[in-house]
Fold these 2 entries.
Entry 1:
Amino acid sequence: MIKFDHQREERIRLPESVFCHDKTVEMLNEILVDLAEGATARVLFTRLSREKFRSLNPDLATRLDYHELSETALLGGPREERVPGKVAVITAGTSDLPVAWEAQRTLHYLGVASTLVVDVGVAGLWRLQERLPEINEHDVLIVVAGMDAALVSVVGGLTARPLIGVPTSTGYGVSSGGRTALESMLASCSPGVVVVNIDNGYGAACAAVRILQGIQPE
Amino acid sequence: MIKFDHQREERIRLPESVFCHDKTVEMLNEILVDLAEGATARVLFTRLSREKFRSLNPDLATRLDYHELSETALLGGPREERVPGKVAVITAGTSDLPVAWEAQRTLHYLGVASTLVVDVGVAGLWRLQERLPEINEHDVLIVVAGMDAALVSVVGGLTARPLIGVPTSTGYGVSSGGRTALESMLASCSPGVVVVNIDNGYGAACAAVRILQGIQPE
Amino acid sequence: MIKFDHQREERIRLPESVFCHDKTVEMLNEILVDLAEGATARVLFTRLSREKFRSLNPDLATRLDYHELSETALLGGPREERVPGKVAVITAGTSDLPVAWEAQRTLHYLGVASTLVVDVGVAGLWRLQERLPEINEHDVLIVVAGMDAALVSVVGGLTARPLIGVPTSTGYGVSSGGRTALESMLASCSPGVVVVNIDNGYGAACAAVRILQGIQPE
Amino acid sequence: MIKFDHQREERIRLPESVFCHDKTVEMLNEILVDLAEGATARVLFTRLSREKFRSLNPDLATRLDYHELSETALLGGPREERVPGKVAVITAGTSDLPVAWEAQRTLHYLGVASTLVVDVGVAGLWRLQERLPEINEHDVLIVVAGMDAALVSVVGGLTARPLIGVPTSTGYGVSSGGRTALESMLASCSPGVVVVNIDNGYGAACAAVRILQGIQPE
Amino acid sequence: MIKFDHQREERIRLPESVFCHDKTVEMLNEILVDLAEGATARVLFTRLSREKFRSLNPDLATRLDYHELSETALLGGPREERVPGKVAVITAGTSDLPVAWEAQRTLHYLGVASTLVVDVGVAGLWRLQERLPEINEHDVLIVVAGMDAALVSVVGGLTARPLIGVPTSTGYGVSSGGRTALESMLASCSPGVVVVNIDNGYGAACAAVRILQGIQPE
Amino acid sequence: MIKFDHQREERIRLPESVFCHDKTVEMLNEILVDLAEGATARVLFTRLSREKFRSLNPDLATRLDYHELSETALLGGPREERVPGKVAVITAGTSDLPVAWEAQRTLHYLGVASTLVVDVGVAGLWRLQERLPEINEHDVLIVVAGMDAALVSVVGGLTARPLIGVPTSTGYGVSSGGRTALESMLASCSPGVVVVNIDNGYGAACAAVRILQGIQPE
Amino acid sequence: MIKFDHQREERIRLPESVFCHDKTVEMLNEILVDLAEGATARVLFTRLSREKFRSLNPDLATRLDYHELSETALLGGPREERVPGKVAVITAGTSDLPVAWEAQRTLHYLGVASTLVVDVGVAGLWRLQERLPEINEHDVLIVVAGMDAALVSVVGGLTARPLIGVPTSTGYGVSSGGRTALESMLASCSPGVVVVNIDNGYGAACAAVRILQGIQPE
Amino acid sequence: MIKFDHQREERIRLPESVFCHDKTVEMLNEILVDLAEGATARVLFTRLSREKFRSLNPDLATRLDYHELSETALLGGPREERVPGKVAVITAGTSDLPVAWEAQRTLHYLGVASTLVVDVGVAGLWRLQERLPEINEHDVLIVVAGMDAALVSVVGGLTARPLIGVPTSTGYGVSSGGRTALESMLASCSPGVVVVNIDNGYGAACAAVRILQGIQPE
C-alpha cells in the first residue's frame, strides 16, 4: 500500500528514506518487499530500533547494513555519486553520540566525507580550542548538543563556517526532551546559526548536503 | 561603557551589528558616539523602531540610512566586498514582509544580491509553481512564513537548494507569537530544511552568507 | 454499574461507543455482559489494545469483530441504515495509517462508504496532484497527518469539499505527541478547515457523518 | 507588490479575503488601490480595527461597508450566488459576540442565511433548552464560547447537526487567550464536534459554507 | 528515619496519610514497622499500586485493608468519630472510577457517608437530570471528570451545594494528563466551583471533610 | 439582546453577576438599561475598570456603588438575606489586595460578614502566628497569594477550617500571570485545600457562600 | 494597613524591601508615610518605574535616592554595616544592564562592594578571557544574561567562584520573556551553578550577601 | 573515544564526574577502562541506575562503591582534601530522599561534612521549628522539596544562611516532573534563595562546595 516518492532524488537531489519510528514491523516488512521488487535500489532506514530490526523478516533483514547505536540501516550501500566537501560532526558530550552517528551514517549514505569531533563541551573550553584549526578545515559544521547547548554559540563565534545545530534530548529536569537545548540554539547570540528538530541527525546531514550540492557548479 | 567585538569580522567574516530592541535611547546614543570615534566605520542596526529612531540625537541619527518597515538602519553603507551567489527571500503572505525586508537589508549590508518573491502561500499553489524556475536560479532560499508555515515543506520538496525557514509571529490564537510556525518548520516533512528564531530575518541572512562565503575557494 | 446513554442514537443519530483506553479489563468485561443482556445490539469499541482484547473473557471476546491495527472492535456489525455520500480518508504518510483505519472502521460501523488515499504528503506533491480528481469525487475529506501537517493546507487550497483534519502523534522532538500537527492545522492558511483532537480518527468519522446526515432531506 | 489568488473562488468556491491584523495601513491602502483597478470586485476584510480603518485613505475607505464590533469590512457587497441552507451562530455569553458577528458577517458575504442565538451558556441550562427546537431547524451550528466552553459538549449531545466550535479568548487567568476553551472543545465528550482556531469566526463561517456547498447536487 | 506529623489530627482534624507514589518498597516497609511500634493506630495509604502492595513484607501487608482499583489501603480501619453530613461523588464516565473510589475510600476512612453517582456525563444530559433530586440531598458534591470536564459547569449551574471538582487524567491528545480538564474546571462559568489537583480524589475528600467539620457546632 | 439567567438565584442561591472584562461600554450601557427596566433589582458588576466605569452613560453610572481598587460595582445594594457565618480573607502581601477586596465586596453583596487579614506572608512567619487565633474564629478561610503561594500550605497545616486558595497574577518572571501560584496551590502539601482561577476573588467568595449556605438547615 | 516584617533583618540579616511592581501609587504613598513615622529608617524600593516615581507625593518622593534605569530607590541610604568580600556583576550584553544595575544598587544598599563587567558575551570569547583574572579576584560572581545564556556555562567552567545566574527577558521569539535563558542556566553543563528568577537582580544580590555573611566568623 | 576534562579540578576546584543517564552500558564500560588506564584516580558516577550498574563488566564494577537509592558510585573514594564548613541537607518529605542522598554522596566525595534533616515539610511546621537551631549551625543549607516546595520560602524566612533549593519530580498531576516545585522556588517570597535543576542533588552539592571553597583564604 506504501507509495514511494521515487522522483524525489531527481527533484531535490536527496533520495527518499524510511523513518521507522511509528511504523509497525508489518509495515516495514511490506516496504522491504516493495523495495526488493522495485526500482529503488538504495534506501536509508532511520530510527530502526534494535527490537524492530530483530523482528523483521530475516530474509529481508539480512540485506540491510544495520548500525545499532545510530538505529540506522542501509539497503544497497551508499550512493555512488560523491559530494565534494567535508563535514565536521561535533558533540558536546558522550551522550550526544547516537545523534552524531545518525548524522554521520546519513552523510556516508549520501556520499559525503565527515569527521567526528567528540566531547568538546564548553565546561572545558580548552578541548574545543585545541581542535579549532582542524574543525575549520571542514566546509560545514554540525554541532550536536543537549542541556544548555552553549557549544553552538561558542563555536559560532569562533568560525565563519555554516553551522547547523542539532539539539539532543539528553539530560533530565528542564533538559528532558531537548526543548531547552532547542530554544537555546534558536536564541544563540552568534549570528547565522541554523537549527533542526531535536535529535534530528538525519535532517542536519541532509541540510549539509543541500549546502554542499547547492553551491557547486553543476 | 559598551564593548564592541571588533575582531568579529576577522574571526567569523560577519561584522558586529547592534540589536536595538532592549536598548534605551540613551544607550543607543552612546553607541553612536563611540562608533563615530572608533575604527568601525560600518554597522547595521536592527529592531530600531520608528519611535526610538526619532528619539535619537539628531546629529547622530542623520548619519543613518533608516528603513522603517524593516526597522533597520545602516551606518557607513554596505560593505565593499561582494559575496558571490544570489539569495531568494520568499514569503507566504504580505504580513511576512517586514521580516523579509529585514533579511534583504541585512543581505544588502553584507554584500549579497537578493530577490524578493512575495505571496506564494500554499493555499494557492499555482502562484508558487509559476515562480519555481526563477526561484531555482538562486543559490540559497530564505522562506519567511507564519501561521502553519506549510510553505517551507512544499518548497523544500520542490527544490534541491539550501533552504532556511524563518517563522513569523503573524496571526492570532494558536498562531500568535510564531510558535506554531516555528515548530511546524522544525517538524517539516521535507528533508534538510533548517530554521532560525521567530522573526529573525537578520539571522537567516547571516546564515545565507555563511553558506555563500564558506564554500567558495578563498 | 455502567450506565449507557441508550437514547443517544435517537437524539443525535450517532450510537454510543465504548472508549477503552482508560478502562480496566474488569470494566470492559462488565460492559460486555451488560450489553449481552441489554437492548443495544450494536456497539463500537475504540482504543482496545491487543493486550486488553486478549485479556477479555473469551466467551465475550469471541463476539467481537476485532481489528488490531486500528484498535477497534465491532459488536453486532455495522448499523443497517446506510448514510448517503462518500468519504475520502487521506494520509500524509504510512505512519498515519492506524488513525486513518480508526476513521474508516468507524465510518463502516456507521454505514458510510469510504476510500483510503495513502502517502500523499506534500514533500512529493505530484502524488497528491495525481489523485486530486479522485479525491474530489468524495463528499467529505478526512486528512490525517502528523509532523507539520502541511497536507491540510495544501488539500484545503485545492478543493471545495468539507475538510476535517486529524493531527497524529507521530514523529519525535517537536512533533512528539502531535501538538505541532494540531496547532499547524488550526493555523491553516486555507479557509474553512476544521480540526479534531490528536489521533481522533473516531471523532473525524462522526463529524463526517453529522455532515452527511445533517444536510440530507429527512 | 501584493499577489492575489484570483483563482481561489473557482478552485475552492470561497473567494479570497484580506486578513488585516498584521498589515500596515500602507499595505492596506495599496491593496485597496490594486482591487480598485483589478477584476476582483468583491472582497471581505477581517480584523480591520477601528484605528486602522480610520487611518485608511478616505477615498478608498468610503467604498467599504465597515462593521466596527466585528472588525469586518465588505467591498462590493455580498456575492450574488445564494448558498442553500441556514446556519445558527450560538454564543455562551455576551462577551463572545464580536466573534459571533465576524462569523455572521462572513456568512452574509458568502451568501448564507444565519440566525444569532445569544447567551445560552450552560450555567443556566434552561435558556438553551428553551431554544433547542429553533436551533435544530438550522443545517449547521456554529457554537462560540470561551472559558470552559462547556456549551459545545452540551449542544453536541442534544442535536445531530454538524457542529463547529469556535473558542474565544475571553476571560482571565487560565481562560486568558482562549487555550482552555480550545482544548476543552477538542476534548469534548460529544462525538463528532469539530473546532477552528481561537476567535476564528471567519474560519467557522467558511467551514459552514464548505458543508452547505459541498453536499448539494451541483 | 521517617518523621510522622502525629500532631496533625489534633491541629487540623485530619490524620496524616502516607502517599506511596514516590516511595520505594523499602521505605514503605520501614514506615509500616514504625507504625506498628508507634502510637498512630490508624493510617490511610494512597497511590499504593498493586505491584508495590505485593512486594511489601507479607507480615506487614496482611494488616492492611487493600483496595486495588483505588490503590488505597487502610491500617486500623476507619476512625471512630463520625462526621455529620453526606457527600455525593459524581463521575462523568466509567474511566473516572478509580479517582472516585479514592475519594470514597478516603471519606470512609475519615468517617463520612458517601454515595457514588456514575456515568452522568453531559453528552447525555438526561442521565444527570434524572438523578438531580438525589444529588441535591447531599451536603457536599465531588464531581470527578476528565476530557472537557463540562460536567462541573452543568452541575454547578443546577445546584446550590458546595462543589469540588476533581479533574482526571483520562483520555488522549489534548486530554492526556488531565490539564485540559483542570483548566476547564478552573474556568468554569458556574460561580463558586472549587478545584483540586488532577486525579486527587484524596484531596477532594479531605476538603469535603473540612467543610462538614468546619461548620458544625463543636 | 442580552439574556439574563433570572432563575439563577432560585436555582443555586447565587444571583447572576455581570463580568465586564470583555464587554464593550456599549454592551454595558445596554445591560444597565435592561436592568433598569427589568425585575432584577440587584446586580454585582466585576472587572469594571475605572476607564470603562467613567465611559458609562452617566445617568446609569450614577446608580452604581463603584469601588475602584477592586473594580466592582453594586446596583441596588447587598441582598437583604444574611448568610450565617464569617469569612476571613487573608493575603500574603499588599499586592494581593485588589483580589482580596473583590472577594470582600462579593461577600458583602451576598450578605456575608468578612475580615481582612493582610501581609502575613510566610517569609515572616511570626505575623501569621500572631493572628492565627483570630483567623480560627472564622468559618471559611480565603487565602489570596501570588508568587510561590506558600501561605496556602502553611495556613492549611495550622487550621481545620475549609480553605479556598486564590492565586494572584502578581510578580514577574516565572510568577508573571499567576501560573506558578496556581500550580503551587494545587500541589499543596496540606490536605483538603481547594483552589479557584487566578485572581478570582469573586469565585472564592461564591464558593464560601456555597459552603455557608449549603450546610445550614433550611 | 501595610504590616512590615520589622524583625526580618534581625532574623535573616537582610532588611525588608518594597517590591513596587504590583502596588498602586496610593499604596506606595501610604507605605512612605508609615515608614516616615516608623522605626525602619532604611528601605530599598525595587521595580519603581519612572511613571510611578513621578506620581508619588512629592514631599515623600524627595526623600528617595532614585535611579531610573534600575528602577530602584533608597530611603535612608545604604546600611552602615559593611559586608566583607567583593562581588562581580558580569553581563553578556548591553541589554542586560538594567538588571545588572538592580543587582549593584541592592549590593550597595546592603553594604557590599561590587564591580561591573559588561559585554563579555561568548560570541566574542576574547573579551571574557581578557577580563578573567580580574573576575577571579571577586568572591562571588553574578552573571546576567538573556537569550541562550551561554555565558553562565563558560564562566562556570573557567572559575571556582560561587556563581549566581540571572536570566534576563531580553530578546524576541523564543528568547522573549526570559524562559530560554532561565532553563539554559538551570541546564548548564558547568557544575555548581545556581539560578534566580528572570530579571531578579535584587534576589541575586541578596544571595551573594547570604554567602558573604554566612561564612564569616560572627 | 571519550575525552575527559582532566584540567577541571585544577581550574574550578571541582573534579569531573560521569553523568550516566544517557550513556549506554558499552560507553560506561569504555569509560571505566579509560579511567583504569588513566591518571584520574577518583571519579563520581551519577544517575547510574541499578540495571545499568548490574550490566557493567563485573571486573570494572567491582571497583565501584555503589549506592543504589541515590544511583551514585564512587571510584577511588572521596578526595583527600577536606573542605571546611558543614552543609545541612533538608527534605520536605520521605519521597525527596533519593535526591537528598545524591547531594550527600556528592558532598562526601568532595570532602564536605553534611547532616540530613528529613520530613520537615510545612504542613506540620512544628517539625521544622524543633530543628531550626540545629539547622542554623550549618554553613550552607540545601533544601530538597517537591510539590509546592513551600519549605524553601519558610526556611529562607527563618535563617540567614545561604540556601540552595533543589526541586524534586515527586507527586502527580501538576506536581509531576517537578516544574511546579522549580517555579515555586524561583518565585520564593524569601530573599536570596537560589535554585538548581529539578532532582539535581549533585549540582546543589557542587554549589555548596563553591561557596565553602570560594570564600576561605587560600
Entry 2:
Amino acid sequence: MIIVMEENATDDQIVAVVDRLVQLGFDIHRSTGARYTILGAVGSRLADLRALELLEGVNKVVRVSSPYKLAARAFRPEGTRIQVQDLTIGQGCCVVMAGPGTIESRAQLESIAEALASRKVRVLTGNVTRISSDPFGFQGLGEEGLRILREVADAHGMATLSEISDASQLPLFERYVDLIRVGGRQMKNFALLKELSRQSKPVILTRGESSTIEETLISADYLMCGGNHQVIVCESGIRTFETYTRLTLDLAAPAVVGKLSHLPIVADPSQACGRRDKVSSLARAALAAGVDGLLLEVHHDPDRALCDGAQSLSIAQFHSLMDRLERIAAAVEKAL
Amino acid sequence: MIIVMEENATDDQIVAVVDRLVQLGFDIHRSTGARYTILGAVGSRLADLRALELLEGVNKVVRVSSPYKLAARAFRPEGTRIQVQDLTIGQGCCVVMAGPGTIESRAQLESIAEALASRKVRVLTGNVTRISSDPFGFQGLGEEGLRILREVADAHGMATLSEISDASQLPLFERYVDLIRVGGRQMKNFALLKELSRQSKPVILTRGESSTIEETLISADYLMCGGNHQVIVCESGIRTFETYTRLTLDLAAPAVVGKLSHLPIVADPSQACGRRDKVSSLARAALAAGVDGLLLEVHHDPDRALCDGAQSLSIAQFHSLMDRLERIAAAVEKAL
Amino acid sequence: MIIVMEENATDDQIVAVVDRLVQLGFDIHRSTGARYTILGAVGSRLADLRALELLEGVNKVVRVSSPYKLAARAFRPEGTRIQVQDLTIGQGCCVVMAGPGTIESRAQLESIAEALASRKVRVLTGNVTRISSDPFGFQGLGEEGLRILREVADAHGMATLSEISDASQLPLFERYVDLIRVGGRQMKNFALLKELSRQSKPVILTRGESSTIEETLISADYLMCGGNHQVIVCESGIRTFETYTRLTLDLAAPAVVGKLSHLPIVADPSQACGRRDKVSSLARAALAAGVDGLLLEVHHDPDRALCDGAQSLSIAQFHSLMDRLERIAAAVEKAL
Amino acid sequence: MIIVMEENATDDQIVAVVDRLVQLGFDIHRSTGARYTILGAVGSRLADLRALELLEGVNKVVRVSSPYKLAARAFRPEGTRIQVQDLTIGQGCCVVMAGPGTIESRAQLESIAEALASRKVRVLTGNVTRISSDPFGFQGLGEEGLRILREVADAHGMATLSEISDASQLPLFERYVDLIRVGGRQMKNFALLKELSRQSKPVILTRGESSTIEETLISADYLMCGGNHQVIVCESGIRTFETYTRLTLDLAAPAVVGKLSHLPIVADPSQACGRRDKVSSLARAALAAGVDGLLLEVHHDPDRALCDGAQSLSIAQFHSLMDRLERIAAAVEKAL
C-alpha cells in the first residue's frame, strides 16, 4: 500500500499517519521527495483505504498488491482446467452448455436434450427455482426439477448444470448437479460463496450486472478460500445505458480475465441480450473472442415457454447457430 | 398493453399477433390508423413484453398499467404512515435513525446510544452480520448483537433497526428488531421479500445500487403482497461513473417516490458517500429535499471501528450535524 | 403518440389534455376503457413528451412513431451501400480501415501504409487534429497532415479517412478526405452534423460513449436531413463501470443496427479498449458479430508514438491479426 | 508516478522499464521489496500511463501527482471569488441566476426579468443558440437574442449569462455577456476551452453528463491555462440508469469540489431533472448542500415555451421556491 501525502502536509501529519499505520501492524518505508512524501506500507492485513484517505494531510492511498490472490494468474500461471466427468473446461476448447432457462417438465427437457445431444452438447442446463419479479407466476420445480435434469442428462451421457439460489439448496445440488452456477445477483452474497468454497463441485461464478472484472475476481477468491479451486468465471453482460438489449456483453472480458487470472471464462449471450434474435451474433462473437464455453438457452417451443421464452433459441435456431459456431471454431482453432 | 405494429405489417402478421394475445387471455381492441395499426390488449396476467416484441410485424410493445400496484400512489392517495412504538414515520417529520455500522460490543453501543439519546434520536441502528469482501475479517455478533441492540435501545426508550441478511434470521429479527432493513444487494432477492411480506414488522427497503425507482417500487409491491403494508423506501445511493464517493445519492428520489407512491422515503447518506467528511452536506441536502427520515452511521471512535469507520461520523461530528439539521428542519417545517 | 391518462383522471382533465393537443396541431382519437382513458394523437410535429406528461391527470406519454425516419430500416429496406472509389461498404464484406491514430510525419505514414497495402487494406486512416486533455502536448499536423494522408494513400491506391473536429475544417476535408469521420464526442454536435449533411462525402458517425443506439440513429437522421444519405455508423465502445478497458465495445450493436436501420455499421476496437493487447480479440469478435468494417490503429513504432501508442498495434501484431481475421472471414462468409 | 512491477518480474524486465522511463525524461527511484519492486518516477512531462502498463512485467502504474494543477485547492488554498459587476460569487452566498432556457423575444424576456428582479435576482440567463435534436425546430435568436439579453438585464441592473456553442461566437459574447457558460456537451471541447482561456470574462464550466469530478477539474485546468482564472464549476446532473428524471444531480459535488479545488461551484437543477415539478426540491437540496449559486429556468408561460418548457418553472412556482430558499438560506447562513 502506498500513501501519497499532500504537497503541503506538515511533519506532524506525516508522523500521525505513520503512527496509525504502525498501530495497524504495517511496516513503513518513508520516502521524502522534493515535492511529496510517500509512505510505503507492507503488512498482511487488509486496511480500509477510505479510512486512511481521511487522515489529515493524506492525498491518496493506493493498493499495490492485488485485492485477490487465489484467483490471480500468478497463483497458477499455467492456467486452470476444470474436469467434469470426462470433459475438460479451459483447454483449447469451447464447451457448449445448453438447455431451457427453467425446467418445466420431463417431456420438455427430453425434447430439448435430444436436439442438444444430436449436436454433441455435453452439458445440460436448466434452473429449478425461478427468480422472477412476478410473485404469482411459475416458481420452478425445485427438487423434482433437479431429478429430471439428472435423469435426462444421464440418458444422454451429459453433465448437469443448474443455478443455486440459496445455501439451503446445497445438499440437493451436491446430489444432482455437476456444475453449480452462482447467478449475477448472488455474486456478492459472500455467505453463499463461503458455503460453496467448502464443497467439491465446480462452480460457475456469474459476473454481476454492475460489477467490474476485478470485483468478480475478488468474489472468485472468496469462493476458493475454503479449498475448492474449481471455479469458472461467467460473463453474462453488464448494465449500460443501452436499453434495446437487456445488458451489454463485455467481450473484452475473455482477454482481460485470461491476463489477470488462471480461471476459465465462459459467456452467456442469452442472458446478456434477453432477445433470441440477437443471441446468435453474440455467441459467434464470444467464440471468436476466445471464451472457454458458451451457455445457451434453448427451448423446443419458445413461444409457449413458461418463462424467459423471449431469450430462448428455438431448436431450428440452435441448429443453425451450431453450424455457424462450428465453422468459426475451426477458424480460431478451438474444439467445440 | 399497447402493441404498435410496423408501418408495413401485413394483415396476416396482425392476425397472428391478435391470435397470440387472445391465447394469452387478453381482450383486444384493434385500431387501424392511416399509417399504423395499434392493438390495445386488456387482461389480468403479466405478459412478457419482450416475447411479444419478437413476433413478426411488431414494432413496439408498451405497458400501459403500472408494473406495481400496492406501492402505487393510487392505492392509498392520502399516503402511508408507519407506526413504530409511539413514533410515526411519514408524516411531516424527519426521523433520525442512527447508530454504528456494525455492533461491536455492549460498551461500544452504550457510548454511542447515550450521545444519540441526548439529541432525542428515537431509533437505534446497528447490524449484526457483516457483509464484507474480506473472508477473514470481523463477521458481526449475530444474535448476541441483536440482544445488545434491544437492551441498549430499551434503556433509552428507543426503537431498534437492523439489516437482515437471510430469511433464516427472521425469527431472531421478529424477537429483537422493530424495523427490519433489507439492504440494496437484497432488493431483488424475491424469496426473502416474500418471507418478509408475511410477517408484521415494518420493513425498510433499500434501493439497489444499480436499480431504478420503478424497480424499487416493484420490489416494494412484492414485499406487500403477503399483507404487510408497512414499507419504507430507502434511497442510499446509486452507482455512477463518479468514484470519489462510493455511490451518488439521488435526491430527486424523495419527490419522485412521493409522486409515484404512497410509501414514506428515507435517505442513507453514510452508505451513499462512504466518507464521513461528505455525510453532513448530503444529510442536510436530503432533509431539504423532503425525506421522511435519515439513517446516520455514528461511532464513538471511528478510527478504531472494526468496519466502515470511514463512513461513520464521530460523536462531535454528529452533534454538529444535528445542530445544522435542526435549523434546516425548522426552515422546511419538518419536525426532527 | 399515445397519452395514457391516470385511472382516476377527471373528465375536465381529459378535456384539457385534448384541447392542448388540438392546439399543438394533433388529430385526436379518444378511447375510453374500463379503467383508463387513452388518447391517440396523430400529427406532423414533434411534441415535447415531458411537457405533456406534466399535464394534470396524465400518467404516461408514449411515442409511437420512430424518433428517426431517414435512418430507419423502413426507409430503405434493402440496405444502403456506400461507394468509396471502387470500394463498396455494406455488402457482404468487412472493409479494414487502418492507420496511425494521429499522423506524425510523412515517413511515419509511409512505413505504416506500406505494411497495410501488403495486406490489401484499402482505406488509410489518420487524424490531423489531436483532441487531448494535455494543453501542451502534440496537437496534430493540420492541413499538412491531410496532404500527407492524401499523397501516401494515392501512392498505394487507397482511400482516405480522417476525423473532423470542427465545421471550419470542412473545405480542407472535402479536398483531401474520402470518408469523413465524426468522433463520439461530436455525435450530438448538431451544428456540425447539419453542415455535413449538405456536402457529398460519405460520413462515419461514431456512437458517443454514453449514447444509446437510438440516439445514434437520431444523429444519423440529422446527418441525412440535408440530402447526403451516405452514412456509416461506428460502434467504438460505451462507458461502463469497468475500468480495465477504456470503454466496452457493444457487439450487439451490429445486429441491432441491422434490424433498426439500413445503414452499414463498422467497429473501432482500438478506441474501445484503449490497450493494444486487447484489440485483437475484440476485432475478431466484431467480425464474427457481423460488422461491415473494422477501424484499426496501427503504428510502426507504437512505443514511440506521439500519442495513443498504447492502443496502436505494431506492424507484427497487425499481420498476426490479419491472419486470424482472414480465417474468420472465410468462416462467416465475408470478404475481407 | 509509481510503477508497481509484477511479483515475478525478471530483472531484465525491470531494467527495460527503467530505461524506457529515463528515455521519457524521468528521474527514477527503485525500491526493491520482499515481494515487489516499485519504481518511483519524477518528471515534468505527462506520460501515457496505459502505454507503461503494457510493458512486460508491469503490474500497475499509478499517477501520484494530481492530473490538474491550476484548479487544485493547493493552488489557491483560500478559495477563489469571482467578481461580476458588484456581485461576488464564491463567498458565503448563494447567487441565484435565472431566466428562460432560450430567449424567444424581447417581450418574453421582459416579463420574466421583471419577476426575477422583484426577488432581487442579480444574474439574467438565456441562451440564443438552441442545441436540439430536431433539425426543423426553433434554433434561437443568435446575436439579436444577446442584444435583447443585454438590454433587458441593464434595465434591471442585472448581469448577463449565456451559453456559448462555438468559438466563433466569442466576439459576440465578449460584447454582450458577463458570464460565459460552457455546456456539458462541450466540457471536453478542448479547442473551445483554449480560446476561452485567453479572454477575460468569467466562465461557468458545466460538468459533462458522463464525466467525473476529476475530469471536470482537468477541463477547468485547460480553461485556466491561458491566464483567465475566473472559472466556476457547474453541477448539472450526470447520466444514470434512472430514467424518470433526465439526469441525476450529484449533490456530493459541492463538498468534493470544495475539498479538491478552490473554484466556486453552482448547481443547475432544471437541466438535471428536466421536469419542472422536481426542480424545487433539488434546488432546496443544492442550497443546503452548500452550493455558491443556483441556475434556474423560469418562463412566464411554460406551456407555450418554444423549447424546454417542461423544465421551466412558472413565475408562481419561482416565487414559491424563492420563499422556501430564503428560509433555508437563513438556516444555513448563506446570503441569497
